[in-house]
Write a structure and sequence with these properties.
Length: 338
């Protein structure tokens, strides 16, 4: 691919994730990094200076010079940012969740399909090395347990704390929802959910137990108010046990064989996972342009929509449960959350 014309890319949104998108595109042998844009111009200029990137005054001028763009703005702005790009015929990779609302996500997918462009969603955990093993033996999955715990995000001048524009289900749990849906590949039969707001105006800690029609069960816990961070995903299969600890960058596979249990250790490098995600997106764009046939990235818009649909249902069940039992929580204001 290095001898082929490079894909011209740009990044809209230069916060924590957008900064890494910009950095990795600039390092990619398959991409020509056109530039970046952020409504917070000072933040964009800082990233531009750090990686020697051109900073645009508006997204329209940036998009006009690009074949493809990453969108890494707050989730409640994903649709408003992405749909105009798709309608311009630009290929887009939007960070997770695909959108804050299902109707917005549907509109995004429809815009991509109407314009025949690549549309991917940034579920980066799909690109961790252990997922190769998990997907290969997914049909044997019986039980999944995931914990994704984080500290409350720090304040940002003039903006909500990162991720708090949505509940912790859409902010953090959706990573594991996407992985579970990929592993199980069956319809949801039922689920039980508990969740409460703690410091923000929406759920900050949630537990969901999901039962699928094929008998598989998943227990997911997500929190953004924990003092001890944890990001662990464990899978119990008929003949093996897989544990991925993203916090410790370590994975382990125990598989039964004729001699007993065979162990394989897997190193989990998140930086490489994001780089692989971006290269996967670039490759899909290149194949689409060269063949005239749409090539989907590993996580398509429709897959992102499916994860969002279950996430929204889980979120709604948490609120129904609290209402049924008369649980009331304070409504926090931006000043109180700062």
């Amino acid at each position: 691919m290095e001898n082929l014309p490079k894909i011209k890319v740009g990044v809209i949104g230069t916060g924590a994730l957008g900064r890494h998108h910009a950095r990795l595109y600039a390092q990619s042998p398959n991409a020509e990094m056109v530039g970046i844009f952020d409504v917070q111009k000072e933040a964009a200029q800082k990233v531009g200076e750090e990686f020697n990137l051109r900073v645009f005054d508006n997204w329209q001028d940036l998009a006009a010079e690009c074949d493809a763009l990453s969108v890494a703005v707050p989730a409640n702005y994903h649709a408003d940012t992405t749909i105009p790009l798709l309608n311009m015929g630009k290929h887009v990779l939007v960070e997770k969740p695909i959108a804050a609302k299902i109707d917005e996500a549907v509109a995004m997918c429809e815009a991509a399909e109407k314009n025949g462009v690549v549309f991917g969603v940034g579920h980066v955990e799909r690109f961790n090395p252990a997922m190769d093993f998990l997907e290969k033996y997914a049909h044997n999955t019986r039980f999944i347990e995931a914990h994704r715990l984080a500290a409350y995000p720090p304040p940002r001048p003039g903006m909500p704390r990162r991720g708090t524009e949505v509940s912790v289900v859409l902010d953090l749990m959706i990573h594991d929802i996407d992985l579970v849906l990929r592993m199980v590949n069956a319809e949801v039969e039922r689920f039980d959910v508990v969740g409460i707001p703690v410091l923000s105006g929406s759920e900050d800690i949630v537990n969901a137990r999901i039962k699928f029609v094929n008998g598989c069960c998943a227990s997911l816990t997500a929190s953004r108010v924990s003092q001890n961070p944890m990001r662990r995903f464990r899978v119990f299969q008929s003949d093996s046990y897989i544990s991925m600890d993203y916090g410790k960058h370590f994975g382990m596979v125990l598989k039964r064989n004729k001699l007993g249990l065979a162990r394989k250790d897997v190193e989990l490098d998140e930086k490489n996972a994001l780089a692989e995600e971006l290269e996967d997106f670039i490759a899909a764009v290149r194949q689409t342009r060269e063949t005239g046939v749409l090539h989907e990235p590993r996580v398509s818009g429709r897959q992102g929509l499916k994860a969002l649909e279950l996430a929204v249902a889980i979120e709604a069940e948490a609120r129904r449960y609290n209402k049924e039992y008369g649980f009331e929580f304070p409504t926090w204001t931006p000043d109180e959350m700062a």
